[in-house]
Design goal:
alpha/beta, 14 helices
Length: 301
């Protein structure tokens, strides 16, 4: 099958390369010249513009977008849709908010263009290990694109599937990332407790490695944690500042809208926000309160 990849950053380029190695002909576009040049060395046919990319594909065309969530998706679609024809398909493989996805799907349907949302998990390891794909869209369209999804997934019959109509794929990926927040926080807190028990002289990498086999908490995330502890046991040179890309916030907001208690995911998000406050007014005020009611000592800078 032939398709076009829009966005040749690390994730997009890795996916395009996996598709090319799987026998698909992949053309790619990125506004950055170096990204296009790098893609060409990986078996991807570079296009200098969206128009050139669309022109290089046979009808009905299939275009996969791997661009950051938000306005850039709408901007890309605004430039792309006039170049397309009824029957063409656009796949959004990024982390778009599912309500934006349902809106975009309705707009493209008016033009006779199919819109598929594909929540994609696998990160930098997806090229070798395959990607977990949560797909939303019309059943017939997803079935027609089955060879693409089967190639990107860990196996033809594993790690991918249509989970519902438009928006369902991105909704599933949103919740997936919320769960990821909670799992990461639990591992981080557990290893922090181990690290603070200094009289035992614990080797955190050794413990992580032991847990990887047979334990109840074994997971691929633990595998990655063990690897990180092996490379840098003390986390030297890493600032205690944790970003979030939005999916955790959306998950918490959705939990509130649905009246679903999600304390672990919510607190893991709040911990990420807390990590960014290197001069916490709240903590200073807490110390002042303790001094006021109990005369407890205040530690000065």
């Amino acid at each position: 099958m032939e398709l076009g990849m829009i966005g040749l950053g690390r994730m997009g380029a890795n996916m395009a390369e996996r598709l090319a190695k799987g026998g698909h002909r992949v053309a790619g576009y990125d506004p950055g010249g170096p990204a296009r040049e790098a893609a060409a060395s990986r078996g991807i046919h570079p296009a200098a513009s969206l128009a050139e990319l669309v022109g290089a594909l046979p009808a009905p065309r299939v275009l996969w977008m791997m661009v950051p969530a938000g306005t850039i998706v709408d901007q890309t679609l605004a430039a792309l849709v006039p170049l397309l024809s009824p029957g063409d398909t656009v796949i959004d493989g990024g982390n778009s908010f599912y309500k934006d996805t349902t809106r975009r799907a309705a707009q493209l349907t008016e033009n006779g263009i199919h819109y598929v949302d594909c929540g994609t998990s696998g990160g930098v390891w997806g090229l070798a290990e395959g990607y977990s794909l949560m797909i939303g869209g019309e059943a017939a369209t997803v079935e027609r694109l089955q060879p693409i999804f089967a190639t990107l997934a860990p196996a033809k019959d594993k790690g991918w599937g249509r989970v519902g109509p438009s928006g369902a794929g991105h909704f599933s990926k949103m919740v997936h990332n919320g769960i990821e927040y909670g799992m990461m926080q639990a591992y981080a807190e557990g290893f922090a407790i181990l690290q603070h028990k200094t009289e035992f002289g614990l080797d955190l990498h050794q413990i992580a490695d032991i847990w990887r086999d047979g334990s109840v908490v074994r997971s691929w995330l633990l595998d990655l944690t063990a690897d990180a502890l092996k490379k840098n046991p003390t986390m030297a040179g890493i600032a205690p500042y944790v970003e979030d890309s939005g999916e955790g916030r959306w998950t918490v907001a959705e939990a509130i809208d649905l009246n679903v208690a999600a304390p672990v995911i919510t607190l893991s998000l709040l911990e990420r926000l807390r990590s960014r406050d290197d001069d916490s007014f709240a903590d200073k005020l807490l110390a002042a309160m303790r001094n006021e009611f109990g005369g407890h000592r205040i530690k000065t800078d």
